[in-house]
Amino acid sequence: MTSHSTTKARPLSPHLQIYKPQISSAMSIFHRITGVVLSLGLPIFFIWLTSLVDGAESYSIFVSYCHTPLGQTVLFGLAWSFFYHFFCGLRHLLWDAGYFLSIKGLYTSGYIALGLSILLTATLALKIYGVAL
Fold first, then answer.
1. What CA–CA distance (Å, rounded) separates 81 from 118?
2. CA torsion sign, 87 to 90 to 95 to 96?
3. At 54, phi and psi to the nearest 5?
4. d(Cα 124, Cα 76) in Å, to the nearest integer?
5. What DSSP state is assigned to residue 100?
6. Whole-model pTM?
7. Would you say residue 43 lies in a domain?
8. 107: domain CATH number?
9. Does residue 77 belong to any structural domain of this protein?
10. What's the structural domain count of the chain?
11. Separation of alpha carbons 50 and 7, rounded Å
């Protein structure tokens, strides 16, 4: 029988406080977060579809909520979440096919996914606000 003074302390499992932040870990965390955000946004999508089916008056009420600052923030947040999650999913599919597995490839594909998600969200915002592209 051994006492506590003679046993060695077991090492802790690695966790977020141990590792230095990297683009790959940050993008992985945001990929999971955007998946949750998109899941939480499904009721808004359902309400939108329901308002379309209910007719013009119901749809105009939905659109009026979408034009508020909170509505705009939520909708553009959902749009960015969708684009980010989509491009990170494509990135994972490319990894599964054996592409971009080097450190340089990981960083390049990460910056491309992030850049495309921002670019498409900004393009959508400009289109919605009637700015000619």
1. 10
2. positive
3. -70, -20
4. 9
5. S
6. 0.81
7. yes
8. 1.20.1300.10
9. yes
10. 1
11. 64
